[in-house]
Amino acid sequence: MIESRIEGHVATVTLANPPANAFTAEGLSRLTALVDELNRNPAVHAVVLTGQGDKFFSGGADLKLFADGDKAHARVMAQRFGAAFEALQNARPVVIAAINGYAMGGGLECALACDLRIADERATLALPEPAVGLLPCGGGTQTLPWLVGEGWAKRMILTNERVDAATALRIGLVEQVVGAGEARATATALAERVLALSPRAVVACKQLIHEARRGTPRHAALAKEREAFVDLFDGADQREGVNAFLEKRRPRWTND
Description:
single chain; alpha/beta; 2-enoyl-CoA Hydratase, Chain A, domain 1; Lyase 2-enoyl-coa Hydratase, Chain  A, domain 2; six-stranded mixed sheet
């Protein structure tokens, strides 16, 4: 249901539950555990997350799971959606979504939890939960307005507007649109660019960028930024990076 492979310093995670790569309680738990595994693997510096096939990134939760109106089951699913996507958002590696088709409901929330999003030109993105009497419970109501603004977030959630790839790019929902079938390769190439950077510096930068999302007061975030800069001098990669630049050679990172 969740496939993973590591090549060099890049992990590829594939949502594999055909036909729509839907999420189940077990699949969400597996995703949470997998993120933890990748966090603890110092060799992994970037992750590409995509869907199996060429039609769906993920269609979200299988609605059959909610047909009986069981509130206890709904609570379990909401908790697991939240845990999985918060883990993804806070992952140590840089996570890049290769949106290879429909990203609907929880599928879009999964992509929203990633650091960057590359969309196939055929992709369609939506949060249609209110159309079936539900609401996004995997961070969608919070992360979407952060990325695209309140107006477009309300347009997508409150009017059930589906967004095509071109519109997603225009409103800042994705960072790049590529040709049919090219999302995974493009995301992988972007992940390879991460490998040229100091792993410790990238982790620190990602954490600092997220301070704004958490509502950390600007003066406090700026103080953390300055302290994090100085902390990098505790490791060998800072000296390696500066000296490699001065010597006009590629740095040899040790993640120290």
